[in-house]
Amino acid sequence: MDKIDFKRTDRTFYTGKTDRWELVDVPEWQFLSAEGQGDPQSSPGYTAAVSALYSLSYGLKFRSKSVHDRDCVVGPLEGLWWADDMQAYRAGDRAAWKWRMMIRQPDWITEADLEAVRATVLGKIKGAEAEASRGAIKAVALNAYEEGRSLQRLYFGPYVDEAPLLIDLHDRFMPEHGYQPAGLHHEIYLNDPRKVAPEKIRTLLRQPVRALAAEQET
What we know:
This protein is of the alpha+beta class. The chain is built from seven helices and eleven strands.
């Protein structure tokens, strides 16, 4: 049985240069996703959402092998980030951050697959935190997401040190090259921060864009 690994089959979209922004055209894929708000370092809702995404993703992997006779590597965790007031990023007001955490799924996975796995996972939840876990599992959705033209760059280092790079992207690089934002800030977490030194954390930063001229013509 062949095993699909998105980081290999779609390598362009899971790697990048560390010294410059590159332009890519990201196709439509489907993801498990869960939304919320709050500091990812301290929010119980964030922790529950990420746990739910992994539980369902591994369940779908095993179901895919038994039902579809197809295997896949569980993809990396990804996050879309925004705030009602984008100055919350510059100020480091993490409580105001909104997020949609995601894990990519093979295109043959269906809603019926998700519901079957969801029922199985819900049936196994026990203990003092059962209610919060069940809520997080029930909130996960399967949906398509297409970014299209985007700028991306590979970043090494702690998440808290990304801000100057992103500010430079928005305040200098995009205006100088004729781009403006056309979607949410996207991060793809390529390794486990619990298992590597802070300076070795690898994050792919991505920003959907459109040409400034396109705005002027409308």
